[in-house]
Amino acid sequence: MSGVEAIAAASALDLLALSPPGWGATLLAGLGNSVIIALGAYGLGFAIGLCGAFGKLYGGPITRDLLAVYTTIVRAVPELVLILILFYAFTGLLNQALLSWGMDRVQISPIITGIVVLGVVQGAYQTEVLRGGILAVPAGQIEAARAMGMPSVTLARRITIPLMTANALPGMANLWLNATKDTALLAVIGFSELTKATYQASATTKAFFVFYPAAMALYLLISLTSTFLIGRLEKWARRGQRDVRG
Amino acid sequence: MKDFFKPHRIVLILLAVALVAWCALSLNWTWLANPKYQLLIVQGIWRTIWIVVVTMVIGMILAVPIGLAQAAGPWYLSAPARVFCTVIRGTPLLMQIWLLYYGLGSLFPSIPWIKQSDLWPYLRQAWPYAVVALSLSVAGYEGEVMRGAFKGVPHGQLEAAKAMGMPPFTLLRRIWLPQALQRVLPTLGGETVSQLKSTPLVSTITIMEIYAVTGRIRQDTFIIYEPLLLLALVYMGLTGLIVLLFRWLEGRTPTRTA
Is B128 among the domain residues? Predict the structure, then answer.
């Protein structure tokens, strides 16, 4: 290693140091925000998606049409535009409602806004994936449960959801990876998640090729860990199924 | 047609029409009459379409060798291709765009021979970085899809071609690639829609496509919702166009279902 390279490597480590003037703590705080928003949005999206999928399959005609409008619009418009629209609409409507009830305006924390906005987007995609998963459950299983007189909530909990898990997992895994990457879009409206933190760190220090690769490594760490864990989960969900390869 | 117009649906459509009418009448659309903004909007839509078409074409051209390297290449080709796909698919596109634009954009001026080359006037603008970043993104995602498509071509086809004494390159050109592309075609429409939905990201590096145009209108006029509604409408229209185009294309390709 030549002298110049040694200095460059040392300064890269200094820049990534946890305590100031290093930016390591800023990046890790950004990573924490990203993970929290991704988890929250995915959870909210799952709640919406599960209701949406059952609504689309078993709901009345009006429910079905409204859900079709929701999933079509959300999937046709860029996430960034939806985030902007929902960001203004969500805070605006909430404050309007609070004012009309005679309460003061509130400043909603950016993390909550991010979770709600990304959750609504995730919900549309998860509705479609979960609907596909439910459709792939053998009809005989559901009919048998109905014939036994099982109430519909018990049927969903005991039969449909356990059987659809294996079918829906690959699609849901993709959506989880999308959720982690979509948190980066919140950088555009100024949330200090990982991408924004990286932008600030590199804009201040001009060390673009230190911070961007470091942040990319963090994102890759999330996605590779998730892929590994989801692989285990899928194996567990497919227990007791016959291997199609024979 | 009769199936579509059920009673509840007519009510829903009337409600939707009422909502649109309310939006058109009670919201502030005066800025649309301004010829300056009209020109900007048309230019912005044109730029968005241009970016989607160019990056999809470049990305697909790059995806073929990347997919082939992963499906059939020796380890020294397949390993880098796999790493490339993992990095592109595992990190946010926004970050890739910023790395190229801010990172390379700050690196290039310090290298003398780049500054003196004929390419320099282009490298000082933002669009080469946007095109490269979006094309690489398509190459990463589609490279993975092409890997599956190359592997999905029935082995007998390739063995038959080899048995006929076909040289490897002719085999790729006549047998392997056409059948792989045919497998990819149904997914390509969806990928193009995703690409359309990633284009607003390049507005963050000063490209004036339709998203940036409405951003500017919002800044100039202090009108928040109306330009955003127009923007959503434009993207829905473009998505519809892409879906129809690919449906037409798919209808034209001959397929035999057993």
Answer: yes
pLDDT at site A1: 43
CB-based contact B228 A212, cutoff 8 Å:
no
Q: Which residues of B touch A (CB under 8 A)?
A: 6, 8-9, 12, 86-87, 89-95, 98-99, 102-103, 106-107, 193, 196-201, 204, 211, 224-225, 228-229, 231-232, 235-236, 239-240
- The residue-averaged pLDDT of B157-168 equals 92
What's the pLDDT at B117? 82
Nearest to B106 among A66, A182, A206 (CB): A206
Domain count for chain A = 1
Question: ipTM of the assembly?
Answer: 0.85
> Is A208 in contact with B89 (Cβ distance < 8 A)?
no
B63-84 burial code (b ≥16 CB/10 A, e <16)? bbebbbbbbbbeeeebeebbeb
pLDDT at B162 over 80: yes
Alpha-carbon distance of B122 to A4, in angstroms, equals 31
Read off the CATH number of the domain in which B196 is found. 1.10.3720.10
Q: At residue A242, does pLDDT exceed 90?
A: no
Q: Cα-atom radius of gyration of chain A, to the nearest Å?
A: 23
